[in-house]
Amino acid sequence: MIYSMTGYAAASRDLGSAVMNLEIKSVNSRYLDISFRLSEDLRFLEMPLREKITERVGRGKIECRGYLQAQPAQGAAARERAPNAALLAELGKLDDAVRGVLPQAAPLSVAEVLRWPGVLGDDSLTTEQLQAAAQELFAKLLDEFVATREREGAKLADVLKDRAARMREQVRAAEPLLPAALAAYRERLATKLREAVANLDEERIRQEVGVFAAKIDVAEEIARLVTHMDELERVLKKGGAVGKRLDFLMQELNREANTLASKSVS
């Protein structure tokens, strides 16, 4: 299987107080070039996600985006905002202990107590929760991303195979015509030489015609075209990172086709 360097995938997951959104896309590049656009609360995920990408992807300019989208509490969580009694008692003890040592310290205000994490059932996500959710979500996202590159690569391979098959048909059609075309051209050229140069002997005419006919013989170009198409099909069947090899083969096919067309007399 060969893989295209262009691909896209997106995924999201409801985490309760927020929705995690991840997206990955890529375009062509000579090397593996990874960039991240993560919101501040997800920036710590860059290194582990980068490692996951390098394990699965070899080439391409890749951009990975991720952000959390806050959403309002629903149901019972939205209706009930009772303070945590156990945490209130613990805060009271801490307040008494601090002012016992520092009598001049101001007691905790109601606002400070209510802002204390967990007093009102704080549902903010911890770093561990975010990392676990991101790792699981990104694994599925990366599977889909690689699958999109695989599907596009398969379609590109089919296009190349179809073009190669059509080229083979044209080569097969041209091969039987070559001997007759050369023979007919030799005869026409010999006739013209006899008319133009009456004092040349037949042996000299045959030599001149033979030399020129060798220059316009395209059997070698046809053979090389067939060889390059065999190599093309072998590379596509082998799969893997074949872009550079395919690029070279396209240049060679173009060179032989151009030479064949410029030398052909038929």
Task: Write up what this structure looks like.
The protein has 266 residues and is an alpha+beta fold. The chain has nine helices and four strands. Strands 1-2-4-3 form a four-stranded mixed sheet, with helices on one face. Helix 6 crosses helix 7 and helix 8 runs antiparallel to helix 9.
In quaternary terms, these chains amount to single chain
Shape: rod-shaped
Largest sheet composition = 4 strands, mixed
Radius of gyration, rounded? 37 Å
Order of helices and strands: EEEHEHHHHHHHH
Q: Assign the structural class, choosing from mainly alpha, mainly beta, alpha/beta, alpha+beta, or little secondary structure.
A: alpha+beta
**Widest sheet, order of strands:** 1-2-4-3
| Uncertain segments | 75-79
How many helical elements? Answer: 9
Key phrases:
266 residues, 4-stranded mixed beta sheet, 9 helices, rod-shaped
Give the structure's gist in a few sentences.
By secondary structure, the protein is α+β, with helices and mostly antiparallel strands.
List the helices and strands and how they pair.
Layout (H helix, E strand, L loop, with lengths): L6 E8 L3 E10 L4 E7 L7 H11 L3 E11 L5 H4 L5 H17 L8 H6 L11 H48 L2 H20 L5 H15 L2 H20 L4 H21 L3
Parallel strand pairs: 3-4
Antiparallel strand pairs: 1-2, 2-4
Helix pairs in contact: 1-5, 5-8, 6-7, 8-9
